[in-house]
Amino acid sequence: MLWPMATRWDDNDHDGHVDTVTYYSYFDNAVNGWLRANTGVDIRELDAIGVVAESSCRFLEELSFPDRLRIGLAVERLGRRSVTYTLGVYREGTGDDLHPVATGRLVHVYVDVNTRRPVPVPEQIRKTVNQLVVRRS
Length: 137
Known about the structure:
The chain is of the alpha+beta class. The protein is built from 2 helices and 5 strands; from the N terminus they run βαββββα. It has a 5-stranded antiparallel beta sheet, covered by helices on one side.
């Protein structure tokens, strides 16, 4: 699944390329935007929320404003209390839409909104992310 994302003027650092920390924002926005659009609920109103327990990014090429992006989303692992996403950042209009400019990983652990203790992945989330699970043979 590819989620659209636009770079912003303030994404660039003084070197003229997208600052490294901004890629993590792209990942977080793509995952949560996709969840909000596809679960049929406002995920902020569930009894459990996904907190980022781990994230990583491998930078392959520079990005710069005004690049238009697509963030590729897949689920590497759907556990009892967590979801591990694999992500790819693709620059639109390059003619090579299969070549990522960055790859990453993001792990959501679900916690109770009040106690912040781990809980099972909410059923609405589980059902939705199951569509993105990469089946290994």
